[in-house]
Structure prediction request, 652 residues.
Amino acid sequence: MAELTGNRVVVADDDADILDLLVFVLNRAGFETVGVADGVAALAAIEANPPRLAILDIMMPGMSGIEVLRQVRASETIGDLDVILLTARARDSDVDTGFATGASDYVIKPFSPRELVQRVNAVLTRSQS
Amino acid sequence: LRGDPRARRHQAAHSPAGAGPVQKLIAFVRSSRDVQPLPTAVGEPLADPRAGAAGHHGVVRSRARADQGPTEPRSSAADVSLLTEQNLALRQIHARDLGTYQITLEIARAIRAASDTQQALDVMCHSMGEGLGADRVIAKTMGTRHAVQLDAQWHRPDLPALSDLTLLPDLGGLDEDLWLAAGFRAQDDVTDQEAPQEELSRAFYQATGARALMMVPIGLDDGVIGMIYVFMVNKPRRWTLAEANLVQAVSGFVARAIVAAEQKANQDDYVERIEKLDRQKSDFLATVSHELRTPLTSISGYLEVLQDGETGELTAQQRRMIEVISRNTDRLRSLIEDVLVLSRIEGGVRKTDFAEVSIHGVITRVGEELGLLAQGSSIELEIDAGPHTAMVLGDRASLDRAVVNILSNAIKFSRPGGAVTVSGTMDPDASRVLITCQDHGVGIPAQDQVDLFTRFFRARNATDNAIPGTGLGLSIAKQIVEEHHGGQLRLTSVEDQGTTVVLDLPLYESLLEPSQPHLAAGE
Prediction:
């Protein structure tokens, strides 16, 4: 199992503006942020250099955030990675699927950047303890 | 009277003019029915005419000689003999008609019991063929909208099945004519040179060997939807009116069975279409919600970043402008959420998806969700989620939404420093669960209270004080509580004193029954 330490965060969203916002906000909060635009790139970035946490949009072309999460959980090396899902569909089924697949938390769009950073810190604190 | 009954019948049938009333009656009976000759002839002067009339065949063995004895007794004996014969004929006809009637009832029952139109037709052909003692029965239908083409046939076991029913001669509009005339076509013997013959009957004879045939249309108000054919193969048959009536009655049953089956099919089709529309609507809503929320995410996110001064201090003017953008972004977001919720609940909710929902859970979740809003507005939020056993049968997300709408109103319309209470209570005797939300805020002007549940309506003091809102929240909550969950939403308000809203929902009944295992587990 890889050492999931440091302050590196992989962020994936296919909406460029939201991705910029996420990267900006997380960088300001002191994280080293890697932004990618789809699920395949997210999985590649996570596997290449396991981050401390990943924030994945659910609806992305090619590979959804849920699918990336599923593959992360199935992995022997990065199975414990903390993952926060982002969704613009506040349907219970999405949230349920996310948690069933092993999401650490989820954030519904539109989100407050302040609240997002709070959630990220909460997840990291929880997994450290 | 002569010894040969066939000769007599011929005579009686063809010389009714000038005959007495008895002869006329007999002539009528014989002409309309295929009368069986008496099993025993009335030979000698009748020793007991009443026994003869009662049909005790063994008593009347012989008939009076027509060439001996005085004229008057001979004439009387002849009349009595005729009456006896007529009486017997009527009995036979009566018994046969009764039998035909019974067959009709049996076929009607069988058609009703059939699971679909094809089975109804099969059963009908079979029971009618056997009941009438016919050689073949064929039914063809094309459904009320000429969509469903079905056929069925039955034949005497020693006859071969007709391999292709599409090869039956074209009726050339006869079916329509018969239906409009409420009639049928019966041919006793296609090969009888003396009887008037139809071209069509001969075509059927050549195609199927049907020497005697009956054709009855299956129709509905506006036209023919099928045809029933009854054949005798290579032998004549004198069809009776009762038999024709039977086939006509059965054709009515078949028509009704077809209509019922089509209505059922239409209904199934309709349900399927509705379900498909429902799925499309859900997909559409999910897509729209995604498409509307995505741009809002960037707008509201960067606004917050700007407001927090993360990109440098704003001038007072910039701050005011950003606040206007921010306020209107919130308004847009509320509007999008409310419209989405409204269109989601508009189509109704599927009661089959209903589950037990804990009111304690609803109040706790909503309290957590709105805690920040209350804090930001300096409102003290007092929450008493009530007993864990207070359950309703419903949709959790919808109930959450109803309570969010009510509680967020209470917070928005309270003055800073005020308190809002929300509590859950259960009244097991009345089988009700109550969620009560009370504020001590601005209240609602009396004249505005009638319109409160009208969509997009906003009370005068809400707009005057620029309190944000869409005017949809209350109407959504009311619809969820009353239309979807069979409850009641009650609102009392006094301007400048505050508002109390009660969501009154039916307690989930099965929880009252002691046999429920989860109650025993102390849930």
Notes: Chain A touches chain B at residues 15, 17-18, 21, 24-25, 28, 59, 88-92, 109-114 (CB under 8 Å). DSSP finds five helices and five strands in chain A.
